[in-house]
Amino acid sequence: MLLRDSASGPEILYLRRSPDLKFMGGYWVFPGGRIDPGDHPSGGGSDELAAARQAAAREALEEAGVTVDPAALHPVCQWTTPATSPIRFATWFFAAAADPAAVRVDGVEIHDHRWWRPPDALQAHRDQRILFANPTFALGSRLAGHATVAEALAAIDAWPRERFLGRLHPTDGGRVALYAEDCGYETGDLDCAPTTVDPAFGLHVPTQVPGVPAEVLQPRDTWEAGGAYDDAAAELADMFRRNFEQFAGRVAREVRAAGPV
Questions:
Q1: At what angle do helices 134-143 and 149-158 cross, to 10 degrees?
Q2: What would you report as the CA-atom Rg of the chain, rounded to the nearest whole angstrom?
Q3: Whether 2 contacts 105, CB under 8 Å
Q4: Quick one: DSSP state of residue 193?
Q5: Residue 67: per-residue pLDDT
Q6: Distance CA 66, CA 62 (A)
Q7: What is the mean pLDDT, run by run of 10 residues, along the chain of 261 residues?
Q8: Separation between Cα atoms, residue 163 and residue 251, nearest integer Å
Q9: Please, how many CA atoms are within 13 Å of residue 20, restricted to the half-sphere of its CB?
Q10: Is 132 in contact with 28 (CB distance < 8 Å)?
Q11: Which of 14, 34, 12 is nearest to 91 (CA)?
């Protein structure tokens, strides 16, 4: 993920793959590709992360004309395609600040490029104007809301280095990818956890989770005086709303609507 600063917040470079490609033709993606033999450290060795860094920098140059120092790449996560996918591979994702004036696509594999604020790109995806794969959508969602590239990269450095292996399950509207921490990961049941709505924040809080004592799932139940909790939660929600006003113009309407009620 290559990022640049703009007056309205960080933007991510998205590339549009040729619609003629058999794999993910027409999708908007981050620069990237497979690890080639020359990407491995000289002298051999099996440092997968080092090889992935080198490959990411090489692909950024080949696909977008952007020169990136492999050492300046911030590791994000590793994403492996579901076992039911016709093409299986594992991908390391990285992030780095980039020179916005250097972008140049090849016109063969990559047909177009665009710098997008994550909320704008996500809205275009929801409006079905562009196509995203699951990792592109998910990582763009996590980067929405930061004020600068430096802030976004600092947030990434604080993330745990996760490895994702999704499972695809059918839904009424198509398919959904579930991951190990999702309650329906094993069964595909999307209504697997009963919830109640927190009155202050509007969050759906599970009331039953296998192996978790029910009393710790409801914060109010951990206070000796429920009324004192209600007052504290209302005050916290009000502080959140007032503080978020400075960011309200930078995020999609769905993000604004998800705040405290």
A1: 110
A2: 21
A3: no
A4: S
A5: 94
A6: 8
A7: 94 96 93 92 79 95 94 94 83 93 88 94 92 91 91 94 86 80 77 79 78 78 86 89 81 71 63
A8: 27
A9: 5
A10: yes
A11: 34
Question: How many CB atoms are located within 10 Å of the residue 17 CB?
Answer: 19
The structure tokens listed for 59 are 């692909």
Predicted pLDDT at 59: 95
Which of these, 56, 61, 66, lies nearest to 32 by C-alpha position? 56
Q: What is the pLDDT of residue 47?
A: 87
Contacts of 198 (CB under 8 A, 6+ apart): 204, 205, 233
Residue type for position 32 = G
Q: What DSSP element (H or E) covers 41?
A: none
Across-strand partners of 215? none
Cross-strand pairs, 94: 75
Residue position matching structure tokens 């109010």: 220
User: How many angstroms separate the CA atoms of 53 and 59, rounded?
Assistant: 10
* Helices vs strands, H then E, count in the chain: 6, 11
pLDDT at residue 184 in the model? 80
Distant-in-sequence, close-in-space partners of 7: CB < 8 Å, separation ≥ 6: none
Helices 134-143 and 118-126 cross at an angle (nearest 10°) of 140
138 and 182 Cβ atoms separated by less than 8 Å: no
At 76, list the tokens.
Answer: 């994000």
Q: What is the rounded CA–CA span in Å between residue 229 and residue 181?
A: 28
> 218 near 208, Cβ under 8 Å?
no
220: nearest Cα among 234, 240, 209, 238: 234
